Amino acid sequence: MPFDGVVLSVLKKELILELVDGKVERIYQPNQFEVNLYIYKLGKTKKLIISANPSLPRIYFTERQKKNPDVAPNFCMILRKNLLGARIIGIYQEGLERILKIEFETKSELGDTEVKYIVFEMMGRHSNIFLIDSNYKIIDAIKRLSFEDSPRPILPGVKYSLPPVLTKKNPTEISFDEFVSFFKSSNKSPENILTDNLSGISKQFAIEVILRAQVFEKSFENANTIKRIFDTLKELLYYIVEKGEILPTLYTEKGNVVDFYAVDLKCYTNYSKKHFENLNSCIDEYYFKKEQYTLFIEKRQYLQKTIEQNIKKLSQKYEQNIQKIQEAKNAEVYKKYGDLILANLFQTKETNRDFIEVIDYYSEDLSVIKIPIEKDKDLKQNAERYYKLYNKLKKAEEYAKSEIIEIEKELEFLQSLEALLEKSQEIEDLLSIEEELEKEGYIKTQAENAGQQKKKENQKSKPHHFISSDGFDIYVGRNNLQNDFLTLRFASSHDIWLHTQKIPGSHVIIRTNNKEVPQTTLVEAALLASYFSKAKHSTKVPVDYTFVKYVKKPPKSKPGFVIYDNFKTIIVDSPENIDNFNKVE
Hints:
single chain, 585 residues, alpha+beta, seven-stranded antiparallel β-sheet, 13 helices, tRNA-binding
């Protein structure tokens, strides 16, 4: 992601226009890496985000809101003490480095005017946010480093100094002779030569320079080739940094953000593009969608892990009950032993051996068998012991069989959620699945206000809606709650219901409007049912279909579970994608 020095130089100009002469109203720290300054200017309040996140360091202003912790961290309290009510009087960049300095005018406790600075260093995992005074002494930093941890200690009272790694040349000031020397002394790729020697240049920007210079050689003995790269670099920087001729562009792939830049990059030809009037708006949307996508992935992984753990636990429980049923096969033997001991009670003498020999009245030839006994018990007590073992095993078998029925229901429910999780595309889909898991006790219930918020968000989620090639409406549930809604409340009795046969998946409804449904529509609905199931991308998938009036939900059954009859089955090959289907947005 090229939030490089070039992008920062463009953004700096926008920050100056929007924030200089603004007053700091509020300060928050939503997490360990990020601070938010609320700046009031000309009747409007803007939120300035400064994040030293190791993987996504960034700075921009936004109107989007985020929940803040109830107790402010220490660094946030120090910022409040020093900067609340302060006025922003300047914003500066260190050459083309990814270092930005925001200058504040504030009042001391005695009422004297003082100058303080926030210095933001965008250095990957070394990114940091400093608060320093007018003498450049560190008041505090969001990440502290001791003398033992770093040759450049970051502690209150220590003099602030620039990072020692800033040895690269400013590309706006470099001469052609210096530029040539980089190529003469290196056998690396041209883009690596640029990023290794010039400040503020990201790998993507360097690739763009080489592409625009139309350089395809691997050897740089030709001075004309190097001159072409040099001229292209200088020209691009002149138009972006000096003249401010930009076209902020956001790049996406299948709805997911990929990158952004201050100009439209020619090297990004395979992505969808969205242009913006200003760079900050582009950055704002990029990080909002990036965060949403990150939250989506994290939430999906959490739910996937929860479902898998419960499936594993239930599978183990299932095997244990199968084992109990296997063990119960000995129950009839124990009953037989008890019966034979009692039947031979008066014909058999007490012995000191650990078995007795009795006539087996259950055998055709009345043969003699040996029955193990416990010597410290009499024969009647041994018979009672065998009856107890018989009763215990039979009860365990009965309980195991009832347990297996419930386990199978739970497994079917969890497997249906697993299938829905694979098809989830929006955070609302995941929240619905999470709500189902909470209701069934697989996840601890969240706080009441969080639950209320979740319900509000779930209301935004609607079933997938398609139009068949014959003009019929086809609806597909995104989750089990929607499956129940579609089948039990939304659909009419003469609509057609479809579902993969004995395979977890979504409920599919064809709105018939009391018309006969053509075979083409039926096939398309079956294809959707197979795609939105665990059988996605499989061949010869059986899909059952029937009228909704033949679909019933058993009392107290889990969400999405139904029974049905009077059905027919259609066999389809699940599609690789549904791009060719007419989806209603």
